[in-house]
Structure formats: structure tokens, C-alpha cells
Amino acid sequence: MWPISPEDWKPNGEFALDVRESGEVAESGMLLNAVHIPMGELRDRLGELPRNCKILIYCQKGQRGYLAACALKGSGFEDVANLRGGFAQARLNGF
Questions:
Q1: Which single residue of 13, 25, 72, 90 has CA 20 to 30 Å from 32?
Q2: Domains assigned to the chain
């Protein structure tokens, strides 16, 4: 698991996973091509995630994304990253 800052992230085929609550997504949208699975549903929906590519996880500011990344690593996912600063920081950086 590794953190990546929006300044350093260059999208390259990663699976983007938004773990924010549905209300947050409805209010502010998501990153392009991201898949939304709320943090509270993540463990029950692991089968929807790819195991053959990098997964970039984000939440609103970064803490839930970190926890989600830890949960995925603990469930055997190999290539997992947390977007540092989350959706809020990514939007400031033009994503």
C-alpha cells in the first residue's frame, strides 16, 4: 500500500475507487471513471474489485481512503494506493 498525492498522480489505467458516502458523491460528484462503493459496504463488495490492476482509493480528505486501503491489503489485494488529501485535494489539482 502506498500513498500518492494528487500532484504526483498521473492516471494510467488504475481502478479508481470512491469510498465516500452516497450523499457526498451526490453533492460533489466523483473523479472521472471512478466506481463508488461506500466504505460501509466495502467488505461485502470485494468481489466487484479487480485483482489484476492497481486500485487507487479516495474519500473526501484521505482518512477513510487509508482505512479502505488497509482493508483491501488485509483481504489480499496487492497493488493498492490511497490518494492523499482525497477528493477535495484532487479537485484543487484539476481532477
A1: 72
A2: 2-92 (3.40.250.10)
76-92 tens-digit pLDDT: 999 999 999 999 999 88
Long-range contacts of 34-40 (CB under 8 A, 24+ apart): 34/58, 39/64, 39/67, 39/68
Burial 21-44 (b: 16+ CB within 10 A, else e): beebbeeeebbeebebbbbeebee
pLDDT by residue (tens digit) across 48-80? Answer: 999 999 999 999 999 999 999 999 999 999 999
